[in-house]
Specification:
hydrolase; Rossmann fold; AB_hydrolase_1; 42% helix; AB_hydrolase_sf; AB_hydrolase_fold
């Protein structure tokens, strides 16, 4: 069976997909830890989105994974778009989740430059927890917040700054029409990081795409509304 590859977002890690691994019984799952984050926090983070994409493709080759379904979340969605451009024949189905086609993140809860400056003034731990709180509709009171914040805090200062710079420099909108994989866009309707216009652009510009909007969720519906998210995801990849 074709495996499903998860690419996490900024300050994420493979552990955040544990609930999906359990729910997708029968579907082989590969959850990556990007350099600088999660279990690979000891590695230096890439400074460009395309470099993350090359790293992910090389890692899958090392694991002898030739063809795969691909899910990219947030910054991981940018990386997934680059992977689709670099290796279109390897990706069977593509899920772009809580992401957009521009890295400057217009409409984000704060600018990239503000986040960078607060890394210096507030420190890595406080910045990681503060940003992770915005991913949940109920912020720090959300049941999944502490586990998610613990993953975010694994990233060091270099990883935070490199990731923010990589996103800020990236723009993939011009290549959206070239994506050939059957694509699903998933979005929480209360997302503070990617407002609707970015998501709408993905939905309308990618040739073979469908849209799933999960209500009353922010940036991490897979943690806020896992049953709905898992049903949508499993239905999409098992139809291939």
């Amino acid at each position: 069976m074709i495996p499903l590859v998860f690419v996490h977002g900024f300050m994420g890690g493979s552990a955040q997909w544990d609930g999906q691994v359990a729910a997708l019984a029968g579907v082989p799952v590969i959850a990556l830890d990007l350099p600088g984050y999660g279990k690979n926090a000891h590695l230096e983070a890439c400074r460009d989105i395309v470099d993350f994409a090359h790293w992910a493709l090389d890692e899958l080759e090392r694991q002898n994974v030739a063809r795969f379904h691909l899910l990219g979340h947030s910054m991981g969605g940018m990386i997934a778009q680059e992977m689709a451009a670099l290796a279109p024949d390897r990706i069977v189905r593509l899920v772009l989740y809580g992401t957009g086609g521009q890295g400057i993140l217009p409409g984000r809860f704060e600018t990239i430059e503000t986040s960078k400056s607060r890394v210096a003034t507030d420190g890595v731990r406080n910045t990681a927890r503060r940003i992770a709180a915005t991913w949940f509709l109920d912020c720090e009171q959300a049941p999944g917040f502490e586990a998610c914040a613990a993953i975010a805090q694994m990233a060091g200062k270099q990883s935070l700054l490199a990731g923010l710079d990589a996103m800020n420099r990236w723009d993939g909108e011009a290549r959206l029409h070239d994506i050939i994989a059957q694509t699903l866009v998933i979005w929480g309707d209360r997302d503070r990081t990617y407002p609707w216009p970015q998501v709408q652009k993905l939905w309308q510009a990618i040739p073979n795409t469908s849209l799933a909007v999960i209500p009353n969720c922010a940036h991490v519906p897979h943690l806020e509304s896992p049953d709905v998210f898992n049903a949508i995801l499993k239905g999409f990849v098992t139809k291939a």
